[in-house]
Amino acid sequence: MSVEQPAVPRQPGRPHPFVPPSVGGDLPPVVEEFASPRRIVKWVSEPDAGVRAREAGYADEDVHDFRPTLRPPVPVVTVLDDGSMDHGEEFRLRTERLSIGRTSGDVRIPGDPSISGAHAEIRRVSWRGGFQWQLHDLDSVNGTFVRCVRAVLHENVLLILGARRFRVRNPLKPQAVPLPVGQTNLLDGRPLPPVVWPMLEETASRPGAEAFPLRDERLVVGRAGGGADIELDDPLLANRHAELKRLRDGSWIITGEHTRNGIWVSVAAIGLAPHCYFRCGEQRFRFVIP
């Protein structure tokens, strides 16, 4: 038995509302019928653009996702779960700064005693007519590190390989000793031994901390038993984990292989790539600009 719908009076010059019945369970389109001139305008809501795209695929010319043009994009910082480089607790940078610390900051890691109270900060700064996100160490006790492919190693740089920290020390560099007033410091006055090599030294003060002389222009660092030039008893290292190379000016660079745990280098401040990793204490973070 059908029920006749009551007629809706139409006012001159005003649209006549009409909603057709739903077909196939989809949401009905909204239709407005105009008296003069006669035309029909329809608005049809799209139920789920993501589902449609996955089922049917994008059009050939529709290849770019939406990106903001009047505001900076919103990066995502992930406090990574232990053992993962993808999953963890996410924080979105909708303001110009994000601070990290053990007892203060926007992201707090109270369970890691190797993180300083105020450890590091991510800042958005103007750069080349646009924006750049920078990571700044806040004079932390144990330093802030980034995972990198290649880095120049000077004496103030700390290096994390596996679970241990190292620095390259030049044994020829004289120690800073204050001189009496009026006395002139004689340059190159100290006689040098015939062969002196820089050292890759473990920074830990524990018993058994190791040091390795860099006696060649190229040296591979890796796990014990893997055939590297410098072997470390550390299960977090690959057999060929990284290569140390001496440049013409006497400086050294380190280049990481494609490994699970990578190489980490300390920084005071650095511009962050759109997809990169950094570390405070024993907590790893991922930075992504979607």
Which secondary structure elements does this structure contain, and how are they paired or packed?
Elements: E1 16-18, E2 30-34, E3 39-43, H1 49-56, E4 76-80, E5 88-92, E6 97-101, E7 107-108, E8 120-127, E9 130-137, E10 144-148, E11 150-153, E12 159-161, E13 164-169, E14 199-202, E15 211-213, E16 218-223, E17 230-232, E18 242-246, E19 252-256, E20 263-267, E21 269-271, E22 275-280, E23 283-288
Parallel strand pairs: 6-7, 16-17
Antiparallel strand pairs: 1-2, 2-3, 4-5, 4-23, 6-8, 8-9, 9-21, 10-20, 10-22, 11-19, 12-13, 12-20, 13-14, 14-15, 16-18, 18-19, 22-23
Short description:
It is built from one helix and 23 strands. The chain has 290 residues and is an all-beta fold.
Describe the structure.
With 290 residues, the chain is an all-beta fold. It contains one helix and 23 strands. The strands form four sheets. The protein has a ten-stranded antiparallel β-sheet, with no helix packed on it. The protein has a five-stranded mixed β-sheet with strand order 7-6-8-9-21, with no helix packed on it. The longest helix is centred in the first third of the chain and has 8 residues, at 49-56. The two termini are 56 Å apart.
**Helical content class:** under 10%
- What multimeric state do the chains show? single chain
Q: Characterize the main sheet.
A: 10 strands, antiparallel
Count helical runs. 1
What is the global morphology? globular
Average residue-wise pLDDT: 81
Q: Which parts are unreliable, with pLDDT below 50 for 5 consecutive residues or more?
A: 14-24
- Please give the number of β-strands: 23
**Spatial sequence of strands, sheet with the most strands:** 5-4-23-22-10-20-12-13-14-15
Give me the Rg, rounded: 31 Å
Structural class based on helices, strands and sheet pairing: mainly beta
Distance between the termini: 56 Å
Estimate what percentage of residues fall within beta strands: 35-45%
Q: In sequence order, what are the helices and strands, one letter per element?
A: EEEHEEEEEEEEEEEEEEEEEEEE
